[in-house]
Design brief:
By secondary structure, the protein is α+β, with helices and mostly antiparallel strands. It folds into 2 domains: 36 residues; 86 residues, Beta Barrel (OB fold (Dihydrolipoamide Acetyltransferase, E2P)), CATH 2.40.50. The chain is 26% helix and 31% strand.
């Protein structure tokens, strides 16, 4: 007999394990890729280097005198600039971090739509010299 029945079963099991492992690895990598959020500067976004169909992060400095807050809501608009003086308007509705100020670093997550970055999250950046304010804790 040319084919041993046990040998065929072992080969089929090996192929099944290899195919199953490959599918699991493919699914894991695909899920990981879909959850990645890449960081772009205003220059890169304006040059078309950022994808339009997925969430991204924009980073730069909050332009001086650009923060506009709504009186009756948590909506805030501001401009983000980079070292090449590229500027993008950002719209956000929500509570901004305490470190969020004009002339300071910021990272916003969201989508770039029709020339405006629609942010879903604002992260204020600080430099390596940042020291949190001293907390005075009274003991009894």
């Amino acid at each position: 007999m040319l084919f041993n029945e046990n040998r065929v079963k072992r080969v089929l099991w090996a192929l099944l394990v290899i195919i199953s492992g490959g599918l699991i690895i493919f699914a894991a990598l695909k899920t990981f890729e879909e959850n990645l959020v890449f960081f772009y500067t205003p220059s890169q976004i304006l040059n078309g280097e950022a994808p339009n169909n997925r969430p991204i992060r924009i980073g730069g400095m909050v332009e001086l005198d650009s923060i506009n807050r709504s009186e009756h809501s948590l909506a805030v608009e501001f401009n983000v600039v980079d070292d090449k003086n590229a500027l993008i308007k950002v719209k956000y509705s929500g509570v901004v971090p305490d470190l969020f100020k004009e002339g300071k670093g910021v990272v916003a997550q969201g989508r770039y739509v029709d020339g405006v970055f629609q942010s879903t999250e604002i992260l204020a950046k600080h430099d390596e010299n940042y020291m949190p304010p001293n907390l005075s804790i009274e003991t009894k």
